[in-house]
Amino acid sequence: MLDVRRLRLLRELAHHGTIAAVAEALAFSPSAVSQQLSVLEREAGVPLLERTGRRVALTPAGLNLVRHAEAVLERLEQASAELAHARRGLAGPLRIGTYPSAARAIVPAALAGLAARHPGLEPMVTEVDPAAVAAALRAGELDVALVHEYDLVPAEPEPGLALTQPVFTEPMYLAAAAAGTVAEHRGSPWIMAPAGTLCHAMTLRACQSAGFTPRVRHHVDDFTTVLALVAVGQGVALVPHLGTVPAPPPGVVLTRLPMYRRTRTAFRAGAAAHPAVAAFTAALHSAVPAELGGGVPQV
After folding, report:
1. Rounded to whole angstroms, how far apart are CA atoms 128 and 151?
2. Which among 11, 69, 115, 144 is most buried, taking Cβ atoms within 10 Å?
3. Residues 98-156: pLDDT tens digits?
């Protein structure tokens, strides 16, 4: 009988590519991961891995087993959801991931609504960049998370994860000392999020679409700080609606752009029907401001 925990390790190896990366993602030692994968190979009775230097490639049998592992793990999530429905009332921890601007502008109201309807739940919020959400959900560090995507940076499918339809959609703005277009600021210094984030990729692609590569002066991941730097002439930036709430500082002019950021909730495949996940998603819809389409779930 194949062990589910070892199948999870194989699934993570397919995503991360190295035993060291799997060990870091799941808080194991590399030797423990290696040993468990060796046991899985013995259980399977066929080679699952091909080692090439520091990287490990999966054999065709290994890749096929990962496909089955995804299905098994999804069914286990469905079973967990059914068991949760059988209990009386929602209780226990619910680990929520969110990006910073939603943590400030949307999540507190969602948690208040969740507490009013399900006082036994214990929401636990962690700020995490959407680029890191998939690994955190698969590792069991989060149960549900807010993720966003931009017109120029669409969401990539993630095996083992599921997404809702957009909960809300925000317009994007150019923040500068005066109104203008992205193309008109090809010579300006730019303020961008750190490399590796979706916000960084969005700004870079927007500038490239306008025909230039931005000259980056500051790397800042907090939109309040970004607007403060724009206000004192340190550069220009692209900012979503939530990043401008409650209002930009004096000296900042926002020019609306034909670009949008969409926010969805993400969770492990099979967990859509889990009552705690569904309750948080419903509370999130109710907390969205009316100008962003709040109050009624979008389908």
Report:
1. 21
2. 144
3. 999 999 999 999 999 999 999 999 999 999 988 889 989 988 899 999 999 999 888 77
Q: What proportion of the chain, given as a percentage, has pLDDT over 90?
A: 59
How deeply is 163 buried, as exposed, middle or buried, from its count of CB atoms within 10 A (0-12, 13-18, 19+)? middle
Q: C-alpha distances in angstroms, 23 versus 16, 17, 27, 54, 230? A: 10, 11, 6, 14, 41
DSSP state, 46? Answer: S
User: Containing H/E element for 238?
Assistant: strand 237-240
Q: Mean pLDDT for the chain?
A: 90
**Residue 255 dihedral angles phi and psi, to the nearest 5°:** -110, 120
Q: How many residues does the chain have?
A: 299
How far, in Å, CA of 138 to CA of 59, rounded?
Answer: 22
pLDDT of 65-95, one tens digit each?
Answer: 998 988 988 898 889 888 887 787 788 999 9
For residue 44, give both structure tokens. 């399977």
Domains of the chain, first to last: 4-83 (1.10.10.10), 89-167+262-292 (3.40.190.10), 169-259 (3.40.190.10)
> Quick check: 144 and 264 in contact, CB under 8 A?
no
- Report the DSSP beta bridge partners of residue 144: 96
d(CA 80, CA 58): 29
Per-residue pLDDT, 294? 55
Distance, in Å, from the CA atom of 131 to the CA atom of 148, rounded to the nearest integer, reads 9
Do 270 and 76 touch, CB atoms closer than 8 A? Answer: yes
Q: What is the 8-class DSSP label of residue 156? A: P
Which amino acid, 148? H
What is the pLDDT averaged over residues 16-22?
84
